[in-house]
Specification:
Keywords: Membrane, Transmembrane, Transmembrane helix. InterPro entries: CoAse (IPR045121), NUDIX_hydrolase-like_dom_sf (IPR015797), NUDIX_hydrolase_dom (IPR000086). This protein has about 450 residues and is of the alpha+beta class. It folds into 2 domains: about 325 residues, Nucleoside Triphosphate Pyrophosphohydrolase, CATH 3.90.79.10; about 120 residues, no CATH class. Helix 13 crosses helix 15 and helix 14 runs antiparallel to helix 15.
């Protein structure tokens, strides 16, 4: 079946990047008890149409970039970079049976980045250094420009009870039509994914198009889920008996995910040397900060690139990476109009289309204008667990509504409030209470069953 014609998303991308550059991020200070931080790079490029004449002239500003002919040419395609990191088969994050079909394996994508190390000058430096070390892409070159930072995010474990680190996402834009040669670490695959594959059809095809509306129910983004064993989050790793008991009582968790197509000819794999020269990074960073032309170039091993051997696998975007992606894409939606107090804006904003089809169930019935909140929290495989989460989730729903009220009032969220952190804490607080109730109720029923069974066997 043919697909509806797409509107250019270049104007939406331009508005989003200008907005990110002019909006200060919500920065979370590291507590004294947990100073660890990390940073990732969200790298965006615009691929010109095939055989379109391009120029080597660099844009002097973000506004000038979006006025270039090859950027505005029909068929120009904005893309974002994801990495697929190869892991050991024993590691459930690297690959596992997804249930999508016989022999289909599930792999996850993320952004280049990593932990902040001693000597890093800040979060942006960390993101640039980690990108260089991991894939050999030097964001300090004048072919790239930093746009800004998205809101910090908290990485927690044990259902939100323990803080692991603070994660800072930074957005970069490639200013040239050709991507510089890369040298990925062994087992790392690059995937340049068109933003139109992640944006809802109501945005990419135009909400007023009758033909577009015909395809809304069957096109993009393609939502799926990632199943995680709840015992891996709730029980000690080396306690087999306790893990089996938790698995029996609680079941599994399903996190919303977007399926990433792997049919684009930008997937490459190399076994070449992934080491980086720290001194070279420092020198090049200093040159960029001084506004001079970088003179240092990493030797490329592009000649050693070989096509990646395809397996029958399905790439999925989920968790923190999905949340950061939705934070970026939310800037590409029209601002929601003001609505009367007490009225939900879920049908009045493009933000509402960034959530899974059953998001109202997954997010416990809250409005869906804050997609990075409502699209990354899990549902449990047992319906009674989800019911009790809803019962104890009043505070979580209030947090999301508060964020939405802030968006309607000022066009952006209140920077004084850590909305994502508050939502994370209140949601998992509801989960912990729900799990206690569920386990107690199950224990009561088991005891009643044993008592009734003993009475039936010995006293009848």
């Amino acid at each position: 079946m043919s697909t509806p014609p797409e509107h250019s998303v270049i104007p939406l991308l331009s508005r989003a990047l200008h907005q990110i550059r002019s909006t200060p991020p919500r920065v979370i200070a590291s507590p004294a008890t947990q100073p660890r931080r990390a940073a990732v790079a969200l790298i965006i490029r615009v691929s010109p149409p095939p055989n379109f004449p391009t120029t080597s002239k660099h844009a002097s500003s973000l506004t000038d970039f979006f006025q270039l002919d090859w950027v505005n040419a029909p068929g120009a395609r904005p893309e974002i970079l994801f990495l697929r990191r190869e892991r050991q088969e024993s590691n459930t994050d690297g690959g596992r049976m997804s249930g999508s079909g016989p022999g289909t394996r599930e792999a996850h994508v993320a952004f280049p980045g990593g932990r902040t190390e001693e000597g890093d000058e800040g979060g942006m430096y960390t993101a640039m250094r980690q990108t260089w070390e991991e894939i050999g892409l030097d964001l300090a070159e004048n072919a790239y420009t930093p746009i800004g930072q998205l809101d910090d995010r908290e990485i927690t474990t044990s259902l939100g009870k323990r803080l692991l680190m603070i994660l800072s996402p930074f957005v970069f834009l490639q200013l040239t039509p050709q991507t510089t040669p890369v040298d990925p670490a062994p087992g790392t695959t690059l995937h340049w994914v068109p933003l139109t594959e992640l944006l809802p059809d109501s945005i990419t095809t135009g909400p007023g198009s009758e033909k577009a509306q015909q395809f809304l129910h069957e096109r993009r983004p393609k939502w799926s889920s990632v199943t995680v064993d709840a015992s891996s989050r709730l029980a000690p790793r080396h306690s087999t008996v306790l893990r089996l008991l938790v698995r029996l009582l609680v079941g599994s968790m399903k996190f919303p995910a977007i399926v990433i197509a792997t049919s684009y000819p930008t997937d490459i794999h190399t076994p070449s040397n992934p080491s980086a020269d720290g001194k070279a990074i420092d020198e090049k960073r200093a040159l960029v900060e001084q506004g001079t032309q970088p003179a240092l170039h990493r030797q490329s091993s592009f000649s050693k690139l070989r096509p990646r051997h395809r397996r029958n696998e399905q790439l999925k975007l989920w968790g923190l990476s999905l949340g950061m992606t939705l934070d970026l894409l939310a800037h590409m939606t029209p601002p929601p109009p003001a609505t009367p107090e007490g009225t939900s804006g879920m049908t009045m904003s493009g933000r509402g289309t960034f959530v899974p089809p059953d998001a109202q169930t997954e997010s416990m019935g809250v409005p869906v204008m804050a997609p990075s909140l409502t699209s990354v929290f899990p549902r449990f495989s047992y319906p009674d667990v989800n019911f009790w989460i809803w019962v104890f989730g009043k505070r979580y729903r209030e947090v999301v509504r508060g964020w939405e009220a802030s968006i309607r009032a000022s066009g952006t969220n209140d920077r004084r409030i850590n909305w994502t952190g508050s939502a994370l804490n209140t949601f998992y607080a509801a989960v912990r209470k729900a799990l206690v109730v569920v386990i107690v109720v199950r224990a009561i029923f088991v005891l009643l069953g044993l008592v009734l069974g003993g009475w039936f066997l010995f006293f009848r």
